[in-house]
Design goal:
The protein has 6 helices and 2 strands. It is mainly alpha-helical.
Length: 120
Amino acid sequence: MARIAGVDLPNKKRIEYALRYIYGIGLTSSRAILTAVGISFDKRVYELSEDEVATIANYIRDHYLVEGDMRKKVAMDIKALMDLGSFRGLRHRKNLPCRGQRTKTNARTRKGKKKTVGSK
């Protein structure tokens, strides 16, 4: 089992999809990494040699912000929006959708369980 950036990659998956298990890497950046390193997209994780895994890990460490650092950056960006008092920051503070979705109906994932108000 290959371990990159503190994440165990699933053995049976193709490497281009297995890299997506690392927070901060999607399909496009996964393919860009493999192209830069010179590894085929079709290889499975268990087929990779130790050198190839080390090469991928070094490339990711040098060129991408992943896992803990990425999570910290996202949290700090949201905190900055809230401190500014921007519209998006206020929506984050109130736990409501930030990107223009309706909230009269729906938005249950963000708002949580219904709280019935009024009536005898």
